[in-house]
Predict the structure.
Amino acid sequence: MAAAEADLEVPTALCSDLLDLSAKDTALKWLQTSELPKEIYLHLARYVPKIYCLGPNLNPKSEDLLAQLALLAPLDFYLCGEDPAVGLTKLKQANKPSHLCGHVFKVGEPTYSCRECAADPTCVLCMGCFLGSVHKDHRYRMTTSGGGGFCDCGDTEAWKKGPYCQKHEPNISDASEEDPLANLSDDLIARAYNIFSVMLKYAVDMLTWEKEQELPPGLEPPEREDTYYCMLFNDEVHTYEQVIYTLQKAVNCTQKEAVSFATTVDRDGRKSVRYGDFQFCEQAKTVIVRNTGRQSKPLKVQVMHSSVVAHQCFGLKVLAWLGHVIGYSDGLRRVLCQVGLQNGPEGENSSLVDTLMLCDSKLWKGARNVYHQLLMSSLLMDLKYKKLFAIQFAKSYERLQSDFVKDDHDREYSVTDLSVQIFTVPSLARMLITEENLMATIIRTFVDHLRHRDPQGRFQFERYTAQQAFKFRRVQSLIGDLKYVLISRPTEWSDKLREKFLEGFDAFLDLMKCMQGMDPVVRQVGQHIEMEPEWEAAFTLQMKLTHIISMMQEWCANDERVLIEAYKKCLDALQHCHGGFTDGEQPITLSMCGHSVDTIRYCVSQEKVSIHLPVSRLLAGLHVLLSKTEVVYRLPEQLPLSELSPPMLIEHPLRCLVLCAQVHAGMWRRNGFSLVNQIYYYHNVKCRVEMFDKDLMMLQAGASTMDPNHFLMIVLSRFELYHIFSTADYGKRYGRENANKDTIQQNNTLIEEMLHLIMMVIGERFTPGIGQVQPCDEVKREIVHQLCIRPMSHSELVKALPEDENKETGMEKVIDAVASFKKPGVTGRGLYELRPECAKEFNLYFYHYSRADQSKAEEAQRKLKRQHGEDTALPPPALPPFCPLFASLVNLLQSDVFLAILGTVLQWALEPGGGYWSESMLQRVLHLIGMALLEERHQLESSSEDNDVTFSFTLKISRPGAPSSSPSVLAMLETLQSAPHLEVHKDMIRWILRTFSSIKKIRERSAMSPVSDTGAQTVEETVRDKDKAERKRKAEIARLRREKIMAQMSEMQRHFIDENKELFQQSLEDLEASTSTALEHSPSSPDAALLSVGPRRTRVSEKRQVVTCILCQEEQDIRADGRAMVLAAFVQRSTVMSKNRRRVLQDPDTYDPLFMHPDLSFGTHTGSCGHIMHSHCWQRYFEAVQAKEQRRQQRLRVHTSYDVENGEFLCPLCECLSNTVIPLLPLPRGSSSMSEQPSLSQWLKTVCQQTKALHALRKKEDSAGDSGPDEGERMDETRLPEGFRPDQIPKNPYSGSIKEMLTTFGTATYKVGLKVHPNEQDPRVPIMCWGSCAYTIQSIERLLHDEEKPLFGSLPCRQDDCLRSLTRFGAACWTVSSLPVVQNHFTRLLAALVPDEQVENSPGLLDVDMFHLLVSLVLSYHTLHCHDSSGLSLDAAQLHLLHLVTMAHIVQILLTSVPETTMDQESAGGEEEEEEEAAWFLYSVLGLHLGSGLREAGSGWHLWRSVKSGIVPYLRAAALFFHHLNGVPPPAELQVLGHNQFELLCGYLSLPTNLLQLYHGNRDLLDPLLQGWCSHPAVRSGLQAGALLLSFPRESNQLIDLPDDYSSLINQASSFTCPKSGGDKSRAPTLCLVCGAMLCSQSYCCQTELEGEDVGACTAHTFTCGSGVGIFLRVRESQVLFLAGKTKGCFYPPPYLDDYGETDQGLRRGNPLHLCRERYRKIQRLWRQHSITEEIGHAQEANQTLVGIDWQHL
Ligand SMILES: [Zn+2]
Ligand SMILES: [Zn+2]
Ligand SMILES: [Zn+2]
Ligand SMILES: [Zn+2]
Ligand SMILES: [Zn+2]
Ligand SMILES: [Zn+2]
Ligand SMILES: [Zn+2]
């Protein structure tokens, strides 16, 4: 350890040595030498180890300073050939910068992409460029960068439009691409080349150096010491905790140091954890390896010689230096590129850049980051070398990927991650495909890494080991690369490109072949499968490849020659997979209705079947493209159409669809969930495009080239239904003989599914190429069908639609055509509603509906029709015509087998009773008939001549069935129309018959000359209409009755569940009614002005108040001697009104809360839900909760949303969080004595005498303990004021239970407010109660003011009740406290205004909040008054106290009034001259006392204005206080908003309107007081020191202002660094919405200890900023966080919405977000109402998972 101690000395000694070094001399030496590398190495060998790595605590700052001086400065000098300060500036000026922005993104920085103009989603702009671009008015997407990557501004290939922002717009003059070297002198180029060559080689050598103790030749240090580092390397295997634990053991460090080590290792990839001699370091290494090697690969540790580490450190610095100097000149950058890419002595691929790339996976994170940065700022910024680099990158691609797969670092730390920068450039990608065969290389590399195959060569994920699974995960990034390459389709094809693309396509088909038929399943019969087979890997692969498969098809569609070749190749591949598809399967012949076909005997339910058929599906896609591109019509001779074997094409897709049907039918139950999941994904929006949709297309392709009868027979056979429909009387036989219900049920479902399949094959024509539609029609139809289910938000729709490789759904283009947008309110989100005219496009059997969707949509659409008074038939919609290639599909509808199927089902429906029939089966048959009729009508209408139409469904269904005895389909329909058991389908059958007859008419009309037979028709129709109307009316009545019964039933259910609650609610309503009547005080003389305070105050008699206990439902009188009734209440500390968040409660045990500072820095707030209980009922309830909680904790160890140990509980009625109860008290009986009352000065004198007497008495009592006997003598000494009897102990008017509750609430307020242990004896208990009363009133007053509500009458009942109880409690709490204690409080309070020699340390006037003082004085005066029998009234005392405190407040306001601003005096002048003069006079008096301390006053007008506006909040609070204290109703004018509030308040408070009369009327008394106030040292210093003075009225606190555009917040957060770990980016930057502080949340680095526990930055912050309550915005997540205490929290929707009225929590969608002021106000209101904790409680009750989160770590 000697080295460590000497460490401090070294730098100083070294400094002088280094300072002597002249950069110039060194550089000149280098300029002259012929052996530059050797000279430089000599220099580095000598100085690098002297500067870097000299001790255990690396001190980068001094190192960097010295390095700059001794090492980098000579380099600069050499490069410039002169003083770098001059040379570099010259370079900069001569430079013509490129038009690329190239800004490299920091983690979390916002990036913007334009959804209209970006070539692909990876093209992004930095904020600066974005704001100066055209795209800010386009549809853009905003995301946060994961770090790395750069701004694409200026890259013309990245943007279809607007590639330059204003800043990077090129000048027209230098539009031509110039050689950047042209700007540099040859000398400079030569020097740059030389120095770059040496230094880059040095850096590369050092970073890739693998020996721990030796250095490369030429760098060996002159002297070598025994100093080593024990270097710990990062891996992704061990957790933070493991590393921390191990380090503590291995190197004997504290937890804190270990955390810091681990953080650095994680960030930089390595960190030395020990410094010393070799032995010492080796020890640590052994311990670490031993400790971490038990379960897994041990952590990597190396013992490295200090000189090696030193050179590596400097190597990194060199790379940074290179990056820095090339920033001066594009020419230098080109030189560096040349140096980096030129081949070394080893030839091919031996350039320095190659060397680095090939060592990439061996380097530590920090080194990788540095050189990746350099690559980005050099090679990728130079257009010429970007291309050369791309070629090198592609050449090494396979090797780099293999290294990456073996490496365990995330991809963002791998050089392979640069692929996004290269492959997404279309011209580069194209070049790499043709020159380097990139496409095939990527695909082959990928396939190569998945070697585990089954005997047929297919992938086999099932048997994967953990290692293989890991590899599989990593190798998936290759698919991403392939996507980049394919993302922009070529517009022109060269022969070379065709050749190479098709080579890539071959490779791709090889991949597809490995997937075709993988993971096959076999139906499990008998017992359930033992183990769920692995299925996810195969689906992951499918999902990842989905877009690739689609893109492959798009490329093919782009060029007809490619399409034809690809089609042939794909067909070959399919034939290869299923060559001679009778894999030993028996051929059989099927025949029906005179048709027969050969097929094989194959049962899905018995043999292997696979859901993975990518080759078939790719072929299906290409087949449709043949039609879409019309290649099939133009070049049929080039296509192998004759080779197609339709039965072979459809076989596997059909099997797959049958599998789904059988799973639905419940036949595969024993195969477990894995199969269910696979079927789910098969249809899911993420996969279906390249799975389900393509299978259906393949069926359409096959069926269109087959005899429809053959197709249907094969379908029947695969569905295993052939035997049912081929035997005519099957139904009858079946019903009698087979009683197996399960089988019948299964068959019914299979028939339904089969009918649905036929519908889809015929009806799904919305893909371009199949039907004659546009691409947007497909999207429109999807949206229409989603909105037919219900109105949806934008994000819901996006989720329901397939996204393309650019993450676009195409929705925005069409949505307005089919839907209208409804904006959200303060909650909820914006919704799209279907336009009514689009409802006719609704298809009940839409192929992307799940069963649940289908039934919801059916219900919704029927309801809609009923509402519009239409019949409820949901006939099929009109369809677009097929493309010619698929046109023959419609013949399915008139084929014999089809008609036979229809006939059979209808026949069954006619003879119900057997179980072999279902309503949905019939419904589908009717739908199919409808489709056929529409098809026929469409053909008739669109054909010019009758004989064109070959479709004759109507004729065929009019003919008798197959056995000529059986009735025709039409006849059966007519019979069914009147069948009683088919009521639901009647509308549909009627629709069919109507359509049928209309078609018949068209046929007749076109056959004959048109005859007008409208007359008969109308008669017929009116009769029918009448009939229909009548039926409809009856149905309507029935429906209404049904709905009513349903409603009643659900009502009953709810009653049953909530029986008790309902009861409560009812009683509550009664109660509210009763209290409100009880409180209608009747003033004695209604016309007199209402006075709330003073001897002449309005007398009220409160009516008897009866309330009901929510727990026992008993009624109870509120009486002082009655049983106590209590309100559930929640007491919390608050800083909501704080004007000084830096003031914190230091030591609660010694803190004296008697005076509140005017900055209101912390207070205690009391709130209540207003629910009333008996105190004993509540006590029993709370005990029960406690007991339950104890049991629960023992059993489950789970948290609840409330903390029972802290006295918390939920209100039994409304579940509102509460932590105590307030007793309800009656209005104290007013003293009736109306005798003459003393004036203020007389009264004050009396009170002073009384306090003095008490003081003497106390003193005597104290000393009485010592000198007992002479009690009587002393009594005489203290002359007692007249009528004052301190020995008279007042009688406590309250019952025992009320007294108990008084103590309970008092203790709770004390405990919570001061955060101390409960102690009912503590003298501070009453102070805290008065404080809470005052604080709560003040906060409510502010709330009412800011929300512009009238002072009285606008509070909700519960708050009124709470304030009243709180005030009356405040007035009564002295009865349970010690009298002397409270009297002492009063004495001290009064002394703040009236000097009292017995009291020391009274605060100055400017340090007291006057409203708090008023409340405390009034409420504590009771203790003095209770001894008084002289007739002094309490009312008079209240008034005098009010006057005195008001006077003090006026002085306070005047002293702190802000200087006059240029206000317009004239307008208001004249009216209040008296007041203005009086104010001026008072101010001059104050000036007299204070001298120069007081500012010059502007004018009396201004002073009076200040007083008037400054005092209003105080007057309002006082009015609320006296109203609740004395029960005097407020004047009606104060219950509305009005202008003359000031006068009204003065009147109600018995104050003169000219408040200064208070002074002028009592100058004798007040002048000395004024002098006293002004001479208080605190006042003088407060005014003089230029200290920050609070002025009145205090401005209400608001949450901080938020920017309108969310991205400016992201930007702000991205430049925020963790305050504790020097300059690191914070992972979860979080903004305090109360004070605006940015915090580094949810991270080890910023954890601090709070009350003995480690807490995160947010929790720690709440304790200073919000006394435990916090409101934050998690910027990266776009999420509001509420925290309360250490254990409670919840997330809340942010006030930022996108244009669709939705929030984006987690920032996943990336739509631009803007501030919604209403929502922000709502959050602010929650905060100011002190409802955050309550909100958290409700959230946690609603969502139990929130309870488990470790909120304190955020
Ligand atoms: Zn930019
Ligand atoms: Zn730009
Ligand atoms: Zn744009
Ligand atoms: Zn009760
Ligand atoms: Zn409640
Ligand atoms: Zn804060
Ligand atoms: Zn931090």
